Amino acid sequence: MWSKEMLAVACLLLAAICKANAQCSFDVVFLADSSSSVRPHGTTAANIYIRDAIDCLTMYNVYDVGVGVTHFTCTSTEHIPLGHYTLGDPELTAAVGNIAHTGGLSRIGLAIRKMKDTTSFRSGVPRVAVVLTDGVGQGDANERVDDYAEQAEEAREAGITLYAVATGMYAFLDTAALDTIAGDPSRLHTTHFGGNGCGLAAKLVEDICETG
């Protein structure tokens, strides 16, 4: 996790974006894979990544951002409903840190579909979902293949911009699946090799606020 000093430096480097987009608003839901293939360290890395992203968005101090967090395996569990906490509330980052690894199968497509169908996004505000996963989706008990590609496309058609963040064991990442979920190489990020949530926060601001 980045220190407050490092986050402050990152924010200063992006001060021009902050200043130019003081009225920018968006809603973002983090979907974090907590399946067996991701392993406990992958869940921990995802939680740290999400907390860093939230901290960095908070330090911009000029955005109206709604945040929600869901962990998923073969089912999805909404740990932090969208808008339950305001950005900057210390209880928000504390709640992220309290999310534990569960293990089980990974139904990425099901998680995306449930997010699309049940999340209470605000009207007239850009919608974003960040999927943190190794990309290794499994089928259900009836051996149906995980339909992450179809569900990702349907989410985009519903007006939700998707980002993918690689987490879990690097050797087993399905990069093709991650690319498909993101839909654009510029929206693919990683928790590996020093990847951090502040970089994602900057990308969200650049994509949504500069072009919004």
Automatic annotation (TrEMBL):
Task: Report the superkingdom from the record.
Answer: Eukaryota
Keyword terms of this UniProt record? Signal
Stored Pfam families:
VWA
> Which residue positions does the secretion signal occupy?
1-22
Q: Known Gene3D superfamilies for this protein? A: von Willebrand factor, type A domain
Q: Does the keyword Signal apply?
A: yes
List, for all copies, the residue spans of the domain called VWFA: 27-208
| Name recorded for this polypeptide | Matrilin-3-like
Q: What is the native source organism of this protein?
A: Branchiostoma floridae (Florida lancelet)
What gene does the UniProt entry assign to this protein? Answer: LOC118421431
